[in-house]
Amino acid sequence: MIITIARQCGSGGHEIGKELASRLGLELYDRKKLEEEAKKLGKLDENKEFFQEKAVNSLLYSIAVSYGESNPMEKSFELIRELTQQKPAVIIGRCSGAIYANDPEATTVFLHADKDCRIKRVMKRDGINEKKAAKLIKEVDEKRASFHKFCTGKEWEDASQYQLSIDTGKLDISDAADMIINYINAKNIGQKHL
User: Fold this and answer.
1) pLDDT at 66 over 50
2) With 0-12 CB in 10 A as exposed, 13-18 as middle and 19+ as buried, what is 179?
3) Most Cβ neighbours (<10 Å): which of 4, 31, 44, 78?
4) Nearest-CA neighbor of 156 among 38, 17, 13, 46?
5) Closest-CA residue to 141 (of 163, 159, 115)
6) Which residue from 28, 32, 5, 33 is spatially nearest to 18, judged by alpha carbons?
7) pLDDT band at residue 190 under the 50/70/90 scheme
């Protein structure tokens, strides 16, 4: 079982990921864990920009494409598969929904909430004022959208890329985790009937 979580900043994605991992006995792969695992394999430096969700220099991208690489990030995608291979896991960010889009064992999730809700969460989480929280959300969301577009050619917030999209502004962390678990259970029952 693989659960991938793409999320707007302040939508509670990391907390929901932790809750799912704990309740389902899954490994949690967030940026820190992925970097630790890549370092053990000696592959952290060559994938640093990917783990930090930075779009690579467009000139380098153009050169790579001109030499026949359809997606220069494919090596980083392969590394994510290698790091999480054969392990039931929750993977947060890093285009994991696109990486596991065709995996029948994967459930891809996008978490979002209205801006006011996210600002309040970030203010509480980081102990910052409203203006700083709003600025942080804008910067992080723009970075994630740009990175996703660079890596996949698709719009990050396009719900059609994900199996499940949840407005976490309407639910608490536990209820959002319940909804994902219920979806996975229903999906598994549905696949048996196909």
Assistant:
1) no
2) middle
3) 4
4) 13
5) 115
6) 28
7) low
Instruction: For residue 31, give the 3-state DSSP assignment.
Output: helix
Confidence of residue 57 (pLDDT cuts 50, 70, 90): low
- In this predicted structure, what is the pLDDT of residue 67? 47
Kindly list the distances between the CA atom of residue 35 and the CA atoms of 51, 64, 91, 94, in Å, as whole numbers in the listed order.
7, 24, 13, 11
Q: Identity (one letter) of the amino acid at 145?
A: A
Q: Assess whether pLDDT exceeds 70 at residue 194.
A: no
Q: Taking all residues of the chain, what is their mean pLDDT, rounded to a whole number?
A: 88
CA torsion sign for 176, 185, 164, 80 is positive
What is the Cα 175 distance to its own chain's centre?
19
Residue-wise DSSP of 119-157: HHHHHHHHT--HHHHHHHHHHHHHHHHHHHHHHHSS-TT
* 25 touches 186 (CB < 8 A): no
Tokens encoding 144: 């994630």
